[in-house]
Amino acid sequence: MNGLAKKRAALTHWVLHTRQHVSRVEDEAETLLAQLSCLSARARRIDALAHQPLSVGLYGHASASKIGLLKTLLNSADGALWLRSGERKLDYFAHVHPGWHQSAIAVRFTAQPQPFTSGAPLLLTLYRESEFARHLADQASLRTPPAEVCSRLDALQAQAMPQPQSGMSANEAMEMLAACQRNAPPASLLSAELLLEMAELLPRLRREDRAQLLATLWGEDATLTAAWLHHARLSEQLSGATQILASDALLLSDAMCLAGRSLADAPPDDPGDLRETAVFPLRDGQPQRAQRVSVADLARACQEITLQLDKPGSCPVDLVTLPVGRLGDYGERLLPDTLLICQAARTPEEAQLAAQQLAGWLSRTDIGSATPRLVWALTAEDIASRSQRQIDDKVQRALMRADVPWGVFQLFEGEHARQASAWLKETVNDAQRQQRYRALLQACAQQTEALFSAFLPLTAAQRAAREQQIKQLIQHLQQQIDRHGDLLTALELPAGLLTQTHRLFRQKQPVSPAAGVPVIDLFADSPDTDNQTKHGQPDLAASIYKAWVHYLRQLTPEHPRLKSLMMPSSALRLTTDLLIKIAEHCELRARLRARLAECKGCDEAEMACAAATISEFATWLGYAETPPENRPRSKVDAAKAIFAAAQQTDSRQRLTQLDTQPLSQGLHWAYDWLVAFYHRIQEVHNEADALTSEQAHSLRAAWQMEKDTTALAQEA
């Protein structure tokens, strides 16, 4: 996979070089660079998946059911769960986790031998700095407004170090920021330019300055910022190790050890434990010199505790008990292989949110597996609980409405242990893992391909295939014609992003010189570029246009306005690709620039004008200023042009016969829009390509290297 990273580096270099010469690449450069960074991070996650042990996650609010399921899957005949801790043998339910309460940290049970050193047999997996920042952001209810984020960035640029500091890479930062964006409210969404700037700056900041910038992700909550700083200091003390060995005294309950509360039960936000303990960082699987660390900091930083089963081979896969709030952590790591669910929501009111979380985990970890990976485990306790069944039924119906596959695994008395063992071998095995690995890898390559395919000229075969795809797209939109208004609304730039773009532009705008004094860039090759005005000032129209293009690139079928259209991701991607080409063909950027110039610098007027211009383009596709005689003919009324004004009935004219049943004005407009869309597509297909032959050749070279490397990885 190192070769795959080199190929994406080649694509990144192509973007950085070509954006200086091609306005269309410049419009999408930040989006391309941000998504390439995220895809590189995802490729590393996929690569790591190939080296992870097979695992099944036990997830949900029903603690008793999870414990019963754990005993069944591990064939615990006497009700005990025996562990091997160095030279000691422990019962998990008696010595480690008595009672029925939820563990605060994920616990992995494995039959595989684990590394240990004298006096420290307990293996702990810790969050990376970027992972812990995302974890804290998920807990926050507020985000810092984008305008303040921009001000913070400007202030911290002066504190940046020449070289990256330890703890966080640019790719890790971008992956973390993209994950935070998925859960951010609309008013807090950041532009691609801002995300890229943050991802590049974070690695070059010292720890305290890095904390200031990350604090914007959780609304400047001082408690969360302090928690991140504690984690960063711990990570630095451990030389960035993500796995450590510790004394099993941290794990034992008061019943066996007087050391205090078990680490697995310690609330991650509780600073009350003032104890210290010795830990051994692992490097390449070998323990390093011992370090004394705070137990409270360790509890916050701990992502997973690994416990070795006493009997080798007692379970063919690892079993991981997942706290409800940690599902997102494992989704980012593409784990576990299958999720066994015991009451997905606590109350009926939480059912919809629980379904969204489960669907989000599946979408990040799976690409069309034939075997369901969301599985409800029905134990005797579940059958007896009617209220629990009703809650789960509500979650399952929500998943069905979203077309998310799920299954049920029934465990009853009798042959349940043998049944569980057979089910594990059938559904969680190396063949299933390899199939998922290859599908994820192929999807990653296809996403990279989709980023750049719109820039390359089509061959004759590709043009024929694209024509067929366009016809299918038009037919799909026609079938959903009564919901066409939702599509048009979704294609407009949201007011929050428009306001953010305008504010960021004003904050970065240089101080104007005295009246009548021109601003001349003595180092520019040309006194007039596409993204600057003729006076050398930054171009607000270009900033808004780029924000709109980035917004279109981020649209997904899960958008609230697009859910009713049931558009496949490929169809939505084709729609936005074509719309961006049409916008360039119709010179939307120039139209924005001309109309904003009429606002005389009034902020409110500029934002209203920009919103109206983009909305007009999405609704008219550039035909608003085209005379009716130069427009295509309507398919509803062939005697008229598309978007023709409705004919007013003359009240003085006597009615002699009934006319045909007319379409509503909205449906008439929707059909005309489809005609306009198809005609504009034909126009942009006949235009000259934006790239020169040399630029297209260099892109193909980098792209082909990417595809070749992916093919080699799949064969491996």
Largest sheet: 14 strands, mixed
Residues in helix, % = 40-55%
Number of strands: 14
The radius of gyration over CA amounts to 29 Å
Flag low-confidence runs.
Answer: 254-261, 526-537
Cα end-to-end separation: 11 Å
What gross morphology would you assign? globular
Strand content: 5-15%
Mean pLDDT, as a whole number?
83
Number of helices: 26
Structural account:
InterPro entries: Vir_effector_SfrC (IPR017030). This is Virulence factor. This protein has helices at 2-18, 23-49, 63-73, 92-96, 129-139, 146-157, 170-182, 192-201, 207-214, 222-237, 295-301, 327-332, 351-365, 380-384, 386-401, 416-427, 430-453, 460-479, 484-490, 495-508, 540-554, 569-585, 588-597, 603-620, 665-685, 693-715, and strands at residues 55-59, 82-85, 88-91, 106-110, 122-126, 243-246, 276-283, 286-287, 291-294, 302-309, 318-322, 338-341, 374-378, 407-410. Helix content is 50%, strand content 9%. A hairpin with a 2-residue loop joins strand 7 (276-283) and strand 8 (286-287). It is an alpha/beta fold. The termini are close together. Strands 1, 2, 3, 4, 5, 6, 7, 8, 9, 10, 11, 12, 13 and 14 form a 14-stranded mixed β-sheet that branches. It has a domain at 128-240. The chain has 26 helices and 14 strands. It is globular.
